[in-house]
User: Which sequence fits this backbone?
């Protein structure tokens, strides 16, 4: 291949367009890394509507990881104490199929679990749903999106009647006030932040509010930074609502005509006086009032949030409380306004569209809805009643199912739970109990590979063709542009082959990924995420396309009943909705068309501090690294940028403990411990410490953030509270002086990282 190819960055949910060129081309020197290996050249795609040619360091260096430490052939072993041996695909698949049949015969299909990933393309997700939920009749498919986006999805569904972000990235440049809470956008979604920051600097009237216990790069750019105490998000949001109602800065016409349940919400926020909220949140009253004033004085408020909101035992409640502010001020369905969840992974949105969580089916359907199940059974040509009416095991329930012996086969694909799951020591102990674990990934070694019996080599970015959907509902075609290493296969191809070997030949008779996509979009027909108008041919000809995109070209229609509301809300503004936003007609996907207010009192952290564990630990990403470093840990530029983990601690706390910058600290929770060098900084609030979550056992010793976190989760979204737990800090010097363990020396990459033979 000599021509450049347009594709999508496979890291975060921003969904940046990339243009990739071969390492060698006529009249140009071969593009090589520092070791002399030829690498594909990557630049931003200027024609992509979401990123407009911009790209961060992760996207710019992605091709440098393609040939490093790849899993090229199926490998297998009889027990976890044995070494892996190379086997044929037939041998590996025969063992998987035999185990599936054994589990069904002895435990039932609910003994089978598949744990997938937001790294999947939509075609991978869809075929996995058809195999597990359809043909095998168990809803035990969950994805690592459970750990990042399920609270946002639950909040949208409960408030609006359907999943799907109502906003688009153009809103970043049209808003009067951007309210960022629980998101370090500058480092975690940098291209989104670049667009927003340029707008804020260009429009001096536009304001930026950032809510975060840390003074991040995002907070440094804010007009107002609210460094609230961890766990007080709902207090703050209710406090802002209290002031808006007190000042009569709410839109009563919109509330009356387009929403439901406002009285119960109004009663709750009546209890959140400025004095109470400021005290609980640990902020100044005038700062709280300023935040409310920015909301009150702005015609178009755009809220952005990510893991700091979602990863909480109150995750869904936090999301709905953010949405409440938009509903009470009519800041939705118009340019520059709305509640906008920033997706964590490149295709977490596509996964939700394809049914990729344990409680949903393709096309934003629910497994508990009999009509929805029947529609999917007809599409999949399955007998009535084949799809189970019961939600399957979520990610953490798969771990507890291993503990109890209820899970007889665990299939993990494109994710690394031996680093990313909470309560990591418990997770690892459960993985050791698995009767058979299949691990499907592009790289070896990874931390999870140590717990697998069968390794399946997966094709990754650039090695298979499929689609992905980003945070603003834009679908991009990602074509294959390089040969697959060894015997690697696309994830959907592996799932389909297992299906055929189990006897479901007709259901998995897909000649290519385009055929998978054609069937998938039929599952979205007449659904909120209708994509029947999207095809590979159209994506190749026109470029990325945003849904809803029905085949007939229709969309939301403004009813006569709503026309007066529209005029009232736009107030004669020249910018009218252009179909890029949801709910532009102010009719929602609820039975009566009204959005729902939700009334929540703050419950605080699931694990509050006490005398024994007096600090709150929060975790997060760094600009250059991605999740558990499976890719970025193998890219030289990024490892130089972020060579080692650390723990941020406020100078006041450091002084009390006798800790200086660079001193080693042991961080202990009720579940485990880890060791980090101290980074003494005023950027973290007193009483709170921060640790990056990227380092697993492969990349550093005793530095796993999730050895400390707990699995307590939101009751609605089942998303664990990975963002906060109670810890104690012990200087390593004090341990050494007591005659016990010596400080741990951390290297960025252990010597045993190597390719399989």
Assistant:
């Amino acid at each position: 291949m000599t021509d450049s190819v347009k594709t999508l960055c496979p890291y975060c949910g921003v969904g940046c367009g990339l243009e990739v060129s071969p390492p060698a081309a006529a009249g140009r020197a071969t593009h090589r890394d520092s070791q002399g290996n030829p690498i594909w050249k990557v630049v931003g795609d200027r024609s992509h509507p979401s990123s407009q040619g911009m790209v961060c360091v992760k996207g710019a260096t992605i091709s440098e990881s393609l040939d490093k430490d790849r899993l090229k052939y199926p490998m297998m072993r009889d027990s976890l104490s044995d070494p892996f041996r190379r086997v044929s695909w037939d041998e590996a698949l025969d063992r998987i199929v035999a185990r599936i049949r054994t589990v069904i015969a002895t435990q039932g299909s609910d003994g089978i679990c598949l744990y997938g990933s937001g790294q999947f393309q939509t075609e991978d997700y869809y075929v996995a749903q058809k195999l597990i939920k359809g043909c095998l009749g168990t809803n035990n498919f969950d994805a690592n999106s459970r750990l990042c986006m399920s609270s946002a999805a639950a909040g949208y569904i409960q408030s609006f009647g359907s999943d799907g972000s109502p906003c688009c990235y153009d809103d970043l440049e049209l808003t009067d006030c951007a309210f960022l809470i629980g998101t370090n956008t500058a480092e975690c979604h940098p291209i989104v932040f670049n667009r927003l920051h340029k707008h804020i600097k260009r429009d001096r009237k536009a304001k930026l509010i950032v809510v975060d216990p840390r003074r991040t790069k995002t907070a440094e750019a804010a007009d107002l930074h609210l460094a609230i105490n961890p766990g007080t998000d709902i207090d703050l949001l209710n406090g802002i609502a209290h002031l808006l109602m007190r000042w009569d800065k709410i839109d009563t016409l919109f509330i009356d005509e387009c929403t439901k349940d406002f009285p119960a919400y109004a009663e709750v926020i009546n209890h959140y006086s400025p004095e109470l909220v400021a005290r609980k949140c640990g902020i100044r009253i005038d700062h709280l009032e300023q935040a409310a004033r920015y909301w009150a004085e702005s015609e178009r408020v755009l809220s952005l949030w990510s893991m700091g909101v979602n990863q909480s035992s109150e995750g869904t409640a936090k999301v709905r409380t953010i949405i409440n502010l938009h509903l009470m001020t009519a800041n939705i369905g118009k340019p520059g306004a709305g509640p906008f969840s920033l997706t964590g992974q490149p295709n977490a949105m596509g996964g939700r569209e394809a049914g990729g969580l344990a409680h949903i089916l393709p096309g934003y359907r629910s497994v508990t809805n009999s009509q929805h199940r029947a529609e999917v059974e007809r599409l999949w040509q399955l007998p009535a009643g084949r799809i189970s009416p019961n939600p399957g095991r979520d990610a953490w329930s798969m771990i507890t199912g291993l503990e109890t012996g209820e899970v007889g086969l665990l299939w993990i694909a494109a994710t690394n739970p031996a680093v990313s799951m909470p309560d990591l020591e418990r997770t690892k102990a459960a993985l050791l109990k698995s009767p058979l674990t299949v691990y499907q990934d592009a790289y070896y070694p990874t931390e999870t590979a140590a717990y697998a019996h069968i390794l399946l080599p997966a094709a990754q970015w650039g090695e298979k063709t499929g689609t992905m959907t980003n945070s603003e509902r834009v679908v991009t075609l990602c074509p294959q542009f390089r040969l697959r290493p060894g015997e690697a296969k696309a994830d959907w191809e592996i799932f389909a082959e297992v299906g055929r070997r189990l006897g479901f030949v007709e259901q998995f008779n897909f000649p290519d990924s385009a055929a998978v996509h054609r069937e998938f979009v039929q599952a979205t027909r007449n659904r909120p995420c209708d994509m029947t108008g999207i095809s590979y041919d159209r994506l190749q000809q026109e470029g990325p396309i945003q849904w809803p995109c029905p085949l007939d070209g229709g969309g939301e229609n403004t009813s006569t009943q709503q026309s007066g509301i529209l005029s009232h809300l736009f107030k004669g503004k020249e910018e009218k909705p252009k179909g890029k936003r949801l709910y532009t007609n102010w009719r929602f996907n609820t039975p009566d068309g009204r959005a729902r207010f939700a009334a929540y009192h703050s419950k605080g952290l699931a694990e509050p501090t006490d005398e024994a564990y007096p600090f709150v630990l929060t975790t997060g990403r760094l600009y250059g690294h991605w999740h558990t470093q499976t890719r970025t840990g193998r890219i030289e530029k990024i490892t130089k940028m972020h060579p080692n983990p650390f723990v941020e601690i406020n100078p006041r706390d450091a002084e009390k403990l006798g800790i200086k910058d660079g001193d080693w600290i042991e961080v202990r929770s009720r579940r485990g411990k880890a060791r980090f060098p101290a980074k003494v900084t005023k950027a973290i609030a007193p009483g709170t410490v921060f640790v990056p979550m990227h380092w697993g056992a492969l990349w550093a010793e005793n530095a796993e953030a999730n050895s400390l976190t707990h699995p307590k989760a939101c009751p609605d979204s089942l998303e664990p509270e990975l963002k906060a737990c109670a810890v104690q800090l012990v200087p390593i010097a004090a341990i050494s002086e007591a005659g016990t363990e010596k400080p741990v020396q951390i290297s960025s990459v252990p010597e045993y990282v190597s390719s399989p033979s």
About this structure: Confidence is low (pLDDT under 50) at residues 556-563, 571-579, 741-757. The chain has 26 helices and 28 strands.
